[in-house]
Amino acid sequence: MASLKDHTIGWIGTGRMGYAMAERLLKAGADVTVWNRTRAKAEPLAEHGATVVDNIQDLADRDIVFTIVSGPNDFIEVALGEKGVLKGGGKLPKLLIDCSTISEEASRTVRQEAAKLGVTMLDACVSGNDKAVTGGALSVVSSGDKDAFDVAEPYLQALGRSVDYVGEGENARIVKICHNVFLGIVAQTMAEITVLAEKNGVPRHSFLNFINNSVMGSTFTKYKTPAYVNLDMTTTFTPVLLRKDMDLGLAAARDLGVPMPVSAAAREVVQSLIGNGYIDCDFAALIKLQAANSGLKIEPEDVEVGTGL
């Protein structure tokens, strides 16, 4: 059986998700060296055994380098920019694994340039927030060279509960984009039905407890319930990032001739959320906008509810 000590790991990006994922690898026994644009956000990982470096190119001698950044331009920069991990002019990692949610075009650009340098690239998109990572509930979908996936699989398995390989090229990108479009639709639908029930006099926590234990409940509805019940908008994923991913999905739909009327409507609600000033908060703020549009004044219920994780 492969050991997590078989390869040295580089890690680029320690935002909410990146930090939690790198921490899981460290706790599983992997040898991890970390870079983040704001070093202070990476430094606590040193307590778990990470080496923190100041320059991305200090990761070039690692066997495998993971990246998880906020968008396509950031990914291209950390991979191919003047100070990128593939532009050191000396040693290069054997395998680059990107976990960011970006377009197929950006992914393909880096994959092709990496291949010219003899570096294989895998897409490894993830489902779940930082709490899901900590709870061992992260799901991973990966695409790219199958032999490279076989090498990476033990590290991907260490990140969560499931790993699916979906073929060559950028297949994992479209899977993740479809996933996040669905995320926006479900979050808005959840807000609508919860406000409908509350305006009829049903407490939010009671209604959502019923939904979560019904055939309509899901991992997502369960771990989003505390935010909807107690209006805790501590950020897991911002409306701005959700809009970006829904735009990617709708662009792909246009290119492929797939009508997505429900997705388009949900995207416009997310745009309205942003237009109403909900930017640096969690996208669960959809319930606040829905309540306001419904003439309902909502307050935190201050009820202890579980996340299901």
Helix content: 40-55%
Structural class of the helix and strand makeup? Answer: alpha/beta
Strand content: 5-15%
DSSP strand tally: 8
Query: What order do the helices and strands follow?
Result: EHEHEEHEHEHEHEHHHHHH
* Net shape: globular
Main β-sheet, spatial strand arrangement? 3-2-1-4-5-6-7-8
Question: Major beta sheet, specifics?
Answer: 8 strands, mixed
The CATH architecture assignment of the largest domain turns out to be 3-Layer(aba) Sandwich
How many DSSP H or I helices? 12
| Assembly level | single chain
Query: What radius of gyration results from the CA coordinates?
Result: 20 Å
- Which fold name fills CATH's third level, the topology of the largest domain? Rossmann fold
CATH superfamily assignment of the largest domain? NAD(P)-binding Rossmann-like Domain
Note down, in words, how this protein is organized.
The protein is α/β, with parallel strands linked by helices. The chain has 2 domains: 8-168, 3-Layer(aba) Sandwich (Rossmann fold), CATH 3.40.50; 174-293, N-(1-d-carboxylethyl)-l-norvaline Dehydrogenase, domain 2, CATH 1.10.1040.10. The chain has helices at residues 16-27, 39-42, 72-80, 104-116, 130-134, 146-157, 171-199, 204-212, 219-230, 239-256, 261-275, 286-293; strands at residues 8-12, 31-35, 51-52, 64-67, 95-98, 120-127, 139-144, 162-165. It has an 8-stranded mixed beta sheet, sandwiched between helices. α3 (72-80) runs parallel beside α4 (104-116). The two termini are 28 Å apart.
